[in-house]
Amino acid sequence: MGVGAVMTSSQYDNTLTSLAVRLRDLAQKVTNLNLEMVTSGGTTWLTSIGYSNTANPANPGSISDAAYADLLIADLYVIAAGIYFGLYTRTPAHDYNTEFSVLWAGTIT
Questions:
Q1: For the chain, which residues make up each domain, given as ranges?
Q2: What is the mean pLDDT of the chain?
Q3: How far apart are CA 61 and CA 17, in angstroms?
């Protein structure tokens, strides 16, 4: 549905309901992913499943791919659990859109 499309109140209700449920489900999936990573051993576990633990100059601060994946999962958790579930806020403001743009193609490279 495009911006400016004429909708009825029931269509708006359906859209709002759908988006709220999808957001809740996504927040829970991110929470579960973070919990799995943390309880499995963090970067050590990420290394064991195939992420490199060698410094990578393509990553911010030249951190390893395992550390970068850990950072991205943790930041997704800040948005999903921290903000959605009301656990905390992040100060100063952070541009998550730019940070996660590296994932849009399906890989961290």
A1: 9-103
A2: 86
A3: 41
